[in-house]
Amino acid sequence: MEIKANKINGANAQIEATISRDELNEKTEKIAKQLSKTANVQGFRKGKVPVAIIKKQYGEKLVEDAEAEALREVLAKGLTELNIDSVSLIGEPTISKFEKSDDKIEVAVKVAMRPEINLENVKSFVPDFEKPEVTDEEVEERIKEIAENQAPLVDIKRNRKMKEGDTAVIDFEGFIDGKAFEGGAAENFELKLGSGQFIPGFEDQLIGVKRDEEVTINVTFPENYGSDTLAGKDAEFKVKVNGVKVKDEVVIDDELAKKLLPGEEDATLEKLKEEVKKALEQEKLAKLYNDELKPKLLETLVEKIDFDLPEFVVDQEIDMAVNKKASQMSEDEIKELRENPEKLNELRESFRDDAIKSVKATFIIDALAQEMGIKVEEQEVMQTIYYEAMQMGQDPQKAYEHYKEAGYLPAIQMSMVEDKVLTALLNEKSEA
Fold first, then answer.
1. Which of 7, 122, 158, 410 has the smallest number of Cβ neighbours within 10 A?
2. Residue range 283-304: average pLDDT?
3. Domains of the chain
């Protein structure tokens, strides 16, 4: 067996070999002898089946097994020659050449290794930044918002015209083409004007109406409305205003602080201000991180850290981009790509730069996570999906199952790892 192994770069290698017909025959003979000891063939006792019978019954399969064994041998010897440990390989080896002739088989196998990434200068790539400041006015405004949210709704004393921000207590019934429709009626429903809770235009037409008045509201359901029977339809609502409510006034003092800081001994307004200030600082810092610093840092890491990439991983990323693009194309456009290899290649190459950046980012984040000891377990991914689903009013278990069945969990997990890594780097910079 002639083997020639070549390390293309730090992440890719190719092993070429010539396997003689004599070698394949020897392997076929060996496999046939082994099988003769275990095979069940009618008319022969187990372990006593002649090799000739085995060859006749399993002929083609024996040859395939011999070729597979030869390929494994090619890979093992090639890796040894290149001094590459099998644990450093990523993905499956790719057979790029397998040409049979009467006296030999010529093969070429491509392998990819996990790239070695120099992370020595990573900290120098983290941008300088100043922590956001929070003013006393912002603290007071936030406490006022919290207090108003805590305040109960109370009926207004005088019968004035309603305005945005008021809560209307209404009876209503909806009609389409003069007929009441299912789910279009309620009694003593509390609707905050300006909340956008109802169909566009509904709340606006209640502004200026007083308690005990009856009005007719005309609206059009949006084209993308959840119900097909209502989407895009003109509707008329008969509405009676039973009452008007506003938020009661809340005194901002130590008593409010005690309500908002349960379990806090000697809670005071000053202590509440301190806690609110900390929360606002964290909110501003998180916004700065997510909107500006994290994207900038990741872009810098990809630009500054240079290393070889496994070719097949880049190709996979390009494939995904091409498939996504194809899903948006017409049948004629797809047909043109199938019939024109050059045009398909041009399309693939148009995604190469972005694919390289994406793959580089993934490997960099993975290397940093390992160095920093950052992990995201499946349980944490599940909790995140559950929380977001509940925030959106969805069934958490169904949401999780959907992501799992669609194969999205690894991508979500990687995104969470990336977020933790970049956050840790920025936090370390801010504390330096």
1. 158
2. 95
3. 2-112 (3.30.70.1050), 152-247 (3.10.50.40), 269-431 (1.10.3120.10)
